[in-house]
Amino acid sequence: MEERWSVPTTEANGVSPEEAFAILGDETRLNIVRVLWRAGAFHEYDDVDDTAGALSFSELRRRVDVDDNGRFNYHLSKLVPHFVRKTDEGYRLSGGGKRIARTVVAISGEHDVDVAGEVDAACPACGGDVTVTYEDQWLRFTCTRCDGLFGDAAPNGTLLNAPFPPPGLVGRTPEDALGTELYRCMLDLTSMMQGVCPECASAVRGSLSVCDEHDAALGQSCLTCRTPFAAWGDLRCGTCLFAKRLPVELCAMALPPVIGFLYARGTNVLAPSLDDLFEVVRSRVTTTVTDTPPGVVVAIDGDDGVTLTLDEHLTVVDLAG
Question: Fewer CB within 10 Å: N-end or C-end of the chain?
Answer without folding.
Answer: N
